[in-house]
Design goal:
By secondary structure, the protein is an alpha/beta fold. The chain has helices spanning 3-23, 72-77, 87-90, 94-97, 129-136, 153-166, 178-181, 222-235, 255-266, 369-380; strands at residues 55-69, 102-106, 141-143, 170-172, 185-188, 194-201, 238-244, 271-275, 280-287, 293-300, 302-305, 314-327, 330-348, 351-357, 388-389.
Length: 392
Amino acid sequence: MKRGKLVWFLLGLLLCVLIAACSDKEPEETAEPENEETTEPKKPVVPKETKEPEEVHKEITISAIGDMLIHNTVYEDAQTDSGYNFMSMLERVKPFLNDTTITFANQETMIGGKLLGLSSYPTFNSPYAVGDVLKKSGVDVVSLANNHTLDGGEEAIQSAIEHWESIDMMYTGAYKSEADSNKIRVYETDEGISVAFLAYTYGTNGLQVPEGKNFLVNLIDKEIMASSIQKAKKQADAVVLSMHFGNQYERLPSEGQKELVQFAADNGVNVVLGHHPHVLQPIDWVEGANGNKTLVAYSLGNFLSGQDEFYRRIGGIFKFTIHKTIKGEKETVEVKSPQLMPTFVKYSNWANYQVAPMYQLTNDELANTEKHYQEIKDHMSQWVPELEFIEE
């Protein structure tokens, strides 16, 4: 082989060896970055559905009775060797007074107690035992604002209030001090519904309120009433207003009564309870300025008294429902289901007084009882045909 060819041969051989050596070397691994997370594709965000807040419903019942007008024949009939006991007089109606969440009564006569001297018409003062029988029969709230509030002066009012407080009875319409009168009476129920009770009277039979002591009795004054109603609405779910007004012994409300009830409705009162005529006046619904509905009993008559004229012996237990609906932050209150149980004051020879449900009366207790009972039902429901009558 020629020298030149040999050189080219050797160079070619060397090149092949180098190529083979390079092809035998393993490729270096590429180091993966530490702590690198695997990125998954993002899911589309679906907006959550806004759930409607659930409605919560609460309900209580309230009953109200008319005038506890304690004449001498009544407290003399209740006299015992140790004092006074009126329990037998309310025995037949006690189950119905106990049957509601709150029971209200118009205490027409001041219970100043025996030490101040008991008295009858025209200036009344009654035994403490009248308050005791109301408490034992299921009454929770009493109105003290009426035309007889000042019959015994401040002394009788203070004595009566002291007794009401001793038996844990809520009172409204007459007070022991200015500070006491500034407190809105709000009844808090276990069911979670609160009710404010206000009471006012047209006057006090010409007796003047002592100077500087307007707290002794609430007199009807629209400006004062409007202010108190607004305070009550802020503190309670519902407002019940007791009004001592109208004309005695008239079976239909006066224009003055209607005008005051309209005023109450326009100010947002839920229920008006009327007293003073001493006879039953019809139930009605009144529409307020804001479209609200106010339930009114223009007069609940005498519940227990010594008056003897037929219609003055008839009273009633007026019952209704307060319904509260809560939905989120919104609360609404509605008055529903008005009912009435007419009552009759039985007695013989000015003794053995007893308040009886009219539907239970026999002809021996009241002649032509069915006829009288139907007439009362027609009278009371003439403006509210759906008014139900309690008969069990």
